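Quick one, tokens below. Sequence please?
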């Protein structure tokens, strides 16, 4: 029984040591500045998709409450009922072309 207890203690200590090593390695990750992050974004050729759904109309807010996790969670996080949420306009009821033409569009980079 004493041998089993010692074996369990050794295994536990080894696992604990590995966890500490992993935590230290994670702490050494370099935090990028905003300029470095946006440069990475451009170098990686990422784009951004903008959704013009009902939640974009309310912007993830209800009074002074803000939806945690993003505006797309507004119905769930801000306790909108289905009836209240259905009152918001959708893409089909917005004058989409007028909205799009009124926005300043960035120049495309090659």
């Amino acid at each position: 029984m004493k041998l089993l207890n010692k074996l369990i203690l050794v295994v536990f200590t080894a696992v604990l040591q590995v966890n500490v090593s992993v935590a230290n390695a994670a702490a050494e990750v370099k935090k990028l500045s905003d300029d470095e992050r946006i440069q990475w974004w451009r170098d990686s050729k990422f784009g951004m998709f903008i959704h013009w759904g009902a939640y974009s109309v309310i912007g993830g807010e209800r009074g002074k409450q803000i939806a945690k996790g993003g505006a797309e969670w507004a119905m769930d996080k801000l306790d909108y009922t289905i009836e209240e949420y259905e009152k918001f306009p959708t893409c089909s009821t917005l004058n989409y072309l007028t909205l799009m033409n009124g926005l300043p569009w960035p120049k495309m980079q090659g």
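The first helix runs from residue 2 to 27. Helices lie at 2-27, 34-43, 54-58, 74-77, 82-85, 96-101.
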